[in-house]
């Protein structure tokens, strides 16, 4: 049971991480194009370089959502930070389940 939960949890984490990374990429691209005046291709490169760096990408994604998309800070933080408590719960549940079996 523990191995199955680890597999499902690991797969879910990767899918969510990729989705959040894509949202960060678009937010960073829009921020770079809007505020720095970069072209589409250059802003795409900047977004790729920054989006998947764990802390930097999250911070830049939040700033992009706030400044380029006009979101509130709490909404942008909610978009980019919601998976972390969920990931902790899934890993805790998998560890407890493995310990019991």
Structurally, the number of domains stands at 1
Instruction: List the total number of helices.
Output: 5
Secondary structure category:
mainly alpha
**Overall shape:** elongated
The secondary-structure element order is: HHHHH
Q: Which residues form runs of ≥5 with pLDDT under 50? A: none
Mean of the pLDDT scores? 87
Distance between the termini: 8 Å
Rg over CA atoms, rounded to whole Å, is 17 Å
Q: Strand portion, in percent?
A: under 5%
How many DSSP-defined strands?
Answer: 0
Task: Describe the largest sheet.
Answer: none
Which bin fits the share of residues in helices? over 70%
Account of the 3D structure:
The protein has 101 residues and is an all-alpha fold. The chain has one domain. It has five helices and no strands. Helix 1 runs antiparallel to helix 2. The protein is elongated, with a radius of gyration of 17 Å. The model has no long low-confidence stretch (mean pLDDT 87).
At a glance:
The protein is mostly helical and 101 residues long. The protein has helices at 2-35, 40-51, 54-67, 73-81, 83-100. It is elongated.
Supply the key terms:
101 residues, single chain, elongated, mainly alpha
Question: Which secondary structure elements does this structure contain, and how are they paired or packed?
Answer:
Layout: H1 2-35, H2 40-51, H3 54-67, H4 73-81, H5 83-100
Helix pairs in contact: 1-2, 1-3, 1-5, 3-4
